[in-house]
Every structure is written in C-alpha cells, then in structure tokens.
Amino acid sequence: MAAEISSDKLAELQALGGAALITKLLDKFLENSARLIADGQAAVAAGDATKVDYCVHTLKGSALSLGLNEMGELLTQLNVRTKAKNLDGAEADFVKLAAQLEEVRAYKAKHFA
C-alpha cells in the first residue's frame, strides 16, 4: 500500500510507544488531515492562495513527521507552488490527497485497529 508509514519511522515509533502510540498518532492525523484537505479544497475554489498554502504546509509537516512519504512528496511539490501563490493543479492534487488519506485510513484499520 502506498500510504503507509515508512519502515524506519515505524521502527522509531514502535520503540517510542508501540502500537498504542502509532494508533493515537494516526487517529489524530486522520482527523486533522480530513479537515485540512476540506479547508484546502474550499480555499482553492475561493482562490485563497494564502489559506491553501497554510493547509498544504501543515499537512506536509504532519505527513512527513509520521513517515507518510508518498503523501509528503505530493505535498512538498504542491507546497512549492502554493508558496509562489500558484494554484495551478491544486484542485487535482487535493483530490489525490483525499484518496491517499483514505489509503492511510485503510492502512490504520488493517495494522492498528
């Protein structure tokens, strides 16, 4: 599955707090990311590049800190554009992010229910 925690980050989180910590972090990530993706999509529709950049930057930090590298890569590329106030392709990227978030949800359900 593409939207899973990288093996090195998974080992680090296991050592820090095991499955209970990972479950808690994934729950918080899923909750916050769903809101940020929805807010980002609304901001794209409104042409609010500053709000889009905030959502993308926040999502990027969360995804990368959890070792969700594929999502982090997409967000890093999008963040380069949003920092320049360029929203070209942002709508499609948010659709991809929403799909990846559902993959993370499925990954959590399978491995950290």
Structure described in brief:
With 113 residues, the chain is mainly alpha-helical. It has helices spanning 7-46, 49-65, 69-83, 90-111.
Structural class category:
mainly alpha
Give the amount of beta strand, in percent: under 5%
- Alpha-carbon Rg, integer: 14 Å
Distance between the termini: 16 Å
The CATH class is identified as Mainly Alpha
* Rounded average pLDDT: 96
| Shape category | elongated
Low-confidence stretches: none
What is the third-level CATH name, the topology?
Answer: Four Helix Bundle (Hemerythrin (Met), subunit A)
Characterization of the model:
The chain is an all-alpha fold and 113 residues long. The chain has a single domain, classed as Up-down Bundle (Four Helix Bundle (Hemerythrin (Met), subunit A)), CATH 1.20.120. The chain is built from four helices and no strands. Helix 1 (7-46) runs antiparallel to helix 4. The chain is elongated and about 40 Å long. The mean pLDDT is 96.
